[in-house]
Design goal:
Blueprint lengths: L4 E7 L9 H9 L13 H22 L6 H16 L3 E7 L6 H10 L4 E6 L9 H15 L4 E5 L6 H16 L7 E8 L3 H5 L4 H16 L4 E6 L12 H10 L4 E7 L6 H17 L4 E4 L7 H16 L1
Parallel strand pairs: 1-2, 1-3, 3-4, 5-6, 5-7, 7-8
């Protein structure tokens, strides 16, 4: 019997309980791939102070979406769905960057099954050193510690894959159909923000996001749309315009119907379920927006799962 290949899904993760919020935030704020706070030797100390102050507020957000992030269950389901499409030669595993199962947990599980070949698939469509880069750096650190010689293939972006674009366009078209007159709708693509300095230093994230929007709109057709950025996490300059400012601007221009399209998120979590569905929805209503709709996250969209399966097949051939 031929050896199985491990399909290792790389994802950010999220707290699985209110008690896990603070450890999750601490893992996030101590990662210098995503945010640099002071000199490296001081970052853990500064991060603990920031997290102590921020955690109670964030815990409140998670209470409003059910007390935890659904990202673990959704990522597991994505892995199982892709595994079914690929066949018996694959077993799926999940490595969360800031929660459990950790990268080390995942490698230990792969080792227990006697698998030595891994396809590491980042679930961030748009490459950034802060997301995919950090996850791959962590994987490579843990590989050195594993004591096993794994053969690893990396898939680190898919922002322009035809099936990913088709899956997104399908969600946008469905969202537009929920309005009485789609011609009166402003499509608002909201991507996770990054410090502007990352882009200035050559990070390709912004150009990847812009290309995804262009390709999706080619499929959707002629419609008014905006690109903006959410989830700013520090006082330095981040990508603009912000989603909040965009909603305010559109309301000021008299737009009454907004279709929010979360970009860079392939499954529901705090940024969709709280930030868009609750925080931005309340602000939009207060500003006079009459209909505020979010497209469904990709989650286990059949087109999206087939996209991931194709990526794996192509990587195995190359």
């Amino acid at each position: 019997m031929p050896e199985k290949t491990a399909l290792l899904l790389l994802q950010m993760g999220g707290p699985d309980s209110i008690a896990a919020v603070e450890p999750f935030l601490l893992n996030l704020f101590t990662d210098r791939d995503i945010i640099k706070i002071g000199p490296a030797f001081l970052q853990p100390f500064i991060a603990r102070r920031i997290v102590k102050k921020r955690a109670p507020k964030v815990e409140g957000y998670y209470r409003q979406i059910g007390g935890k992030s659904p990202i673990r269950e959704l990522t597991d389901a994505q892995g199982k769905g892709v595994q079914q499409l690929l066949g018996d030669g694959y077993s799926s595993f999940v490595a969360m960057r800031y929660s459990r199962p950790s990268t080390l947990d995942a490698l230990a599980a792969i080792k227990r099954e006697g698998i030595t070949r891994i396809v590491a698939l980042s679930l961030y469509p748009h490459f950034s050193k802060a997301t995919t880069g950090s996850s791959i750096n962590e994987l490579q650190r843990m590989l050195k510690q594993s004591g096993v010689k794994f053969e690893v293939t990396y898939i680190d972006r898919f922002y322009d894959h035809p099936l990913y674009i088709q899956a997104l366009a399908e969600k946008v078209t469905k969202g537009l159909a929920s309005f009485p007159d789609p011609r009166e709708v402003e499509i608002v693509f909201s991507a996770h923000s990054l410090p502007q300095s990352f882009i200035d230093e050559g990070d390709p994230y912004l150009s990847h996001i812009q290309e995804t929007v262009r390709l999706v709109m080619e499929r959707v057709g002629e419609a008014s749309h905006q690109l903006c950025f959410q989830s700013k996490a520090s006082p330095v300059k981040w990508l603009e315009p912000s989603t909040e400012a965009t909603i305010q601007s559109l309301a000021g221009a008299g737009r009454k119907n907004l279709l929010m399209v979360p970009l860079s998120f392939v499954s529901d979590h705090i940024e969709t379920l709280y930030e868009i569905d609750i925080e931005y929805a309340e602000k939009a209503k207060a500003l006079g927006i009459e209909r505020f709709v979010r497209t469904e996250a990709l989650n286990c969209s059949p087109l999206f799962l087939e996209c991931l399966a194709q990526l794996v097949r192509q990587a195995e051939k190359s």
